[in-house]
Amino acid sequence: MKKVAVLSYSNSNNLGDPIQSLAAKALLGQAADLEMDRDHLDTYTGSARGIVLNGWFMDKPEHWPPAVQLDPLFISFHLNPTAEKKMTRPDGIAYFKKHEPIGCRDLYTQKTLEQKGIKTYYSACLTLSLQRNVIVPPQTPRKGILALSCLERMLPEVNFDQGISPKGLLSTAIQVLKFPSKYVKYKKAQQRLRAFLQHKNQPITYRSQRIPKILEDGAQFKALALDQLKAIATAEYVITSRIHTALPAVALGTPVILLSDGLEHPNQWSRMEGMEQFFPILSSHDLKTFSLKALRPGKAHLPYVDLQKEKITAFLKKLEERA
User: Fold this and answer.
1) How many whole angstroms separate alpha carbon 132 and alpha carbon 116?
2) Which of 21, 180, 207, 235 is least surrounded by Cβ atoms within 10 Å, i.e. has the fewest?
3) Sign of CA dihedral 53, 56, 57, 59
């Protein structure tokens, strides 16, 4: 069988990244045999092989496109505005066209690529294919509300490592000036969430999708991601602002709300287009009139899961024929 690589993330402390790779591996089965750093795919010097390019691209767009030895399947692909300019230079567009159609994770990516003459289709996210009976034993009971990274995007930050250039100093000064007002907004949103959770009969567990530091041990990173999936799979409800908590929750049959507070910037909101069919997207203001009892496990994702399986099967067949 022709072997296929999936992505790894050596510079990430976001558990949503390995969760996406776990989903890709589950769909590939025994064909998945190698992991490659998403942001250095151009440095690969090995023999020809397939690779699944799913997820957010990319932190270092100067390393695009990947090495010619890699035969890619573009599925659940997100082209972020932060990388769009560099990734759609002439050589980047030529690469997309060579491997079209591009399976897009969101409608923003689909529209952006189509405007550049690239053929696409909407695949949704591979994490929608995760299966609860693989994550936890089938009869595992559910308990409580999981509040996972609900409002942490709103927490203001000041980066003092931006250098002493005029641009760096200006950016730091702006962050300092905006810090008080942003912190007040965060505290008010936090109060609204607490008011919503108050008097709920279920126990509430708080978690974050981000871990404190980047781990050099990839196996440990994946183990933490799997533990996160188990928490999602055994909750009665999930509340989050992270799409790679919300989408796995849909796949695992856990009713979920995605909070939009802190997602207003185009770099964030671009990732959301098309996701409203899978779960309600609410601001903390909306919680005042929302009832958790209105949530039900959805099935809107199932046709996309079937499509993903078809695309993976066809890709593996193509690789076999070329071997």
Assistant:
1) 39
2) 180
3) negative
Q: How far is 184 from 45, CA to CA, in rounded Å?
A: 51
Strands 49-57 and 4-8: parallel
| pTM exceeds 0.85 | yes
Residue 77's H or E segment, with its range, is: strand 70-79
Residue 199: left (phi > 0), alpha (psi -120 to 50), or beta? left
Q: Are strands 49-57 and 32-37 parallel, antiparallel or unpaired?
A: unpaired
Residue that is written with structure tokens 């952006």 in the block: 112
- Residues 6 or more apart whose Cβ sits within 8 Å of residue 101: 74, 119, 120, 121
3-state secondary structure of 80: coil
**Do 260 and 239 contact (CB within 8 A), yes or no?**
no
53 to 95, 103, 156, 162: CA distances (angstroms): 13, 9, 32, 31
In 3D space, the residue among 240, 237, 164, 234 whose CA is nearest the CA of residue 207 turns out to be 240
Task: List, for residues 226-271, the tens digit of each pLDDT value.
Answer: 999 999 999 999 999 999 999 999 999 999 999 999 998 888 889 9
CB atoms within 10 A of CB 193: 18
Closest by CA to 55, choosing from 114, 113, 5, 8, is 8
Which residue is it, tokens 């696409």? 120
- The number of C-alpha atoms within 13 Å of 264 and in the hemisphere containing its C-beta is 5
Sheet arrangement for strand 49-57: 32-37, 4-8, 49-57, 70-79, 102-104, 120-122
The kind and range of the H/E element at 33 are strand 32-37
